[in-house]
Design brief:
By secondary structure, the chain is of the alpha+beta class. The protein has one domain. Helix 1 runs antiparallel to helix 2. It is elongated, with a radius of gyration of 22 Å. The two termini are 16 Å apart. 19% of the residues are buried.
């Protein structure tokens, strides 16, 4: 496989790992959408994935030009948006006014993130499959 095709596969593979992380974080956010008390005694804070370009395999020395650029997870950060509040005076975590602090997670936004990450994951799987098919056809022509 040429180094250009190899760089493209490497870029898509890095995207698979990054999108898998986005999916895992969105699922964790949804699972904790009602968690009013974590190990620190505070409600769960929504997490978000920060992606960065990964140029480790981006230079094609044989051709002397830039090739495919991958992606990596730069960080998983906590969203500092305020907690949601719900009036529920009988809840054990209710404050003196009867309000419960709930995680700053909006399930519909997490579903959008989950669908986007899932589609990006599938697109990168398709790209890798197409490259594999291209290489197989090239080998067939060479016989």
């Amino acid at each position: 496989m040429s180094s250009t095709l190899s760089a493209a596969v490497t870029a898509s593979a890095s995207a698979l790992a990054a999108e898998r992380t986005r999916i895992e974080v969105a699922v964790s956010n949804m699972a904790n959408a009602e968690s009013t008390r974590g190990p620190d005694g505070q409600p769960y804070r929504r997490r978000d994935v920060v992606l960065a370009a990964d140029r480790s395999a981006s230079f094609d020395a044989a051709l002397g030009r830039a090739g495919a650029v991958g992606v990596s997870v730069a960080a998983v950060v906590e969203d500092q948006a305020p907690y949601r509040r719900r009036y529920e005076p009988s809840h054990p975590d209710a404050d003196a006014e009867g309000f419960v602090a709930l995680p700053n997670v909006e399930p519909q936004n997490e579903m959008v993130d989950l669908i986007g990450a899932s589609r990006a994951y599938q697109a990168n799987l398709t790209a890798i499959s197409m490259i594999r098919d291209l290489v197989a056809r090239a080998l067939e022509l060479g016989r």
